[in-house]
Amino acid sequence: MKVTVCIGSACHLKGSKIIVEELQGLLQKRRLEEKVELAGSFCTGNCGEGVCVTIDGAVFSVTPDTLGDFFEKEIAAKV
Ligand code: FES
């Protein structure tokens, strides 16, 4: 599974750096680093929805507040 976090300027302002750091921590904690590839991307054109996170082509809108739920539902449950 490939998880791509937009690090364009609009998403950066909405916390993409925090999202990346927390995702790294969660992946480590759950020992999923080998199964999930974490990457960054430039603006994906969905700035209004930021922070934009793309998983295998599907775009999600994630905030630091919703990251925990998002991780469980879209990553941990599907990997
Ligand atoms: S900056 Fe993230 S979608 Fe544009």
Description:
By secondary structure, this protein is of the alpha+beta class. It has a single domain (2-76), classed as Glutaredoxin. Helices cover 37% and strands 23% of the residues. The protein has helices at 9-13, 16-29, 67-76; strands spanning 2-6, 37-41, 52-55, 58-61. The chain has a 4-stranded mixed β-sheet, with helices on one face. The longest helix has 14 residues, at 16-29. The radius of gyration is 11 Å and the shape is globular. The chain starts with a strand and ends with a helix. Residues 6, 8-11, 43-47, 50, 52 line the site of FE2/S2 (inorganic) cluster.
What is this structure, in a nutshell?
The protein is of the alpha+beta class and 79 residues long. It is 37% helix and 23% strand. The chain has helices spanning 9-13, 16-29, 67-76, and strands spanning 2-6, 37-41, 52-55, 58-61.
